[in-house]
Amino acid sequence: MERDFVKELKIDKMSLDEEWEEQSIKFLKAAMKAIDAQSNRDLAMVRLDTVRAEVEDTIRKDPNGHGIDKITESAVKGQVVLSEEVQKAERDYLDMVTDAKVLDAMVKALDQRKRSLENLTQLFLAGYYAKPYVPEKARELSLEARHEEQVKGLERSPRLKRKL
């Protein structure tokens, strides 16, 4: 799952036009998944409350069958917590909470991706990714200056003076 998220967030700086075209679709898909996950989380919470109520009712109807001699709130609550049905419903709920949080984080990351695309677009428009342009005349002058420096360096070399 994490690799899919990273893949969705990657930006190809040299294809900003395509990245912009895909951004809204990626955001919408993630937002819809997050909404579904939040709905599933809420349904799991309702299911958990229902299971707790059913188990509590069962315990109150037959306290001796659940190891309770005297019915007290704390004794009933203790048995409710120990119930396998309640524990399973709690695990399911916590899984749904995790899914909802992960997908919410993905939506936030895609919003951050949008800001990154905006910044990369500004850099592109400012020529940040362009090849450096050096006019022909400046290039020739630079080459001539380097050649002259090399010739002067060779003329000053004591080893070359000895050979001549």
List descriptors.
elongated; 164 residues; mainly alpha; 2 domains; 0% strand
One letter per element, helices H and strands E, the order comes to HHHHHH
Question: In whole angstroms, how far apart are the ends?
Answer: 74 Å
Strand content: under 5%
| Total number of helices | 6
Helix content: over 70%
Shape: elongated
Largest beta-sheet characterization = none
Mean pLDDT: 88
Number of strands: 0
Describe the SSE topology.
Blueprint: H1 2-9, H2 16-61, H3 73-82, H4 84-125, H5 136-156, H6 158-163
How would you characterize this protein structure?
- The protein is an all-alpha fold and 164 residues long.
- It folds into 2 domains: 129 residues; 32 residues.
- The chain is 81% helix and 0% strand.
- Helix 2 crosses helix 3 and helix 2 runs antiparallel to helix 4.
- The longest helix has 46 residues.
- The radius of gyration is 35 Å and the shape is elongated.
Short description:
The protein has 2 domains: 2-130; 133-164. Helices cover 81% and strands 0% of the residues. It is built from 6 helices and no strands.
